[in-house]
Amino acid sequence: MEKDILDKLKKPSFSTPEGYFDKLKAHLEEIPGKEVEVSTWQKSRPYLVMAACFLLSLIVGTGILKMTTGQSVSDADQFYYDLGFADLIPVTYADPSLYENEGAAELSSEDIEDYLIATGVSVNRLAYSETLNGK
Amino acid sequence: MDDKEILEIYGSGQREAAFNQIVAKYSEKLYWLVRHFLCSHEDTDDLLQEIFVKVWQSLPSFRGESKLYTWLYAIATNQALNFLHKQKIRAALNFKSLSAEMENKIDEDPYFNGDEAQRLLLKAVGRLPEKQRTVFSLRYFEDLSYEDISEILGTSAGALKASYHFAAEKIKDEIKKYSEPD
Question: For residue B132, what are the contacts with CB-CB under 8 A and spacing of at least 6?
Answer without folding.
Answer: B163, B164, B166, B167, B170
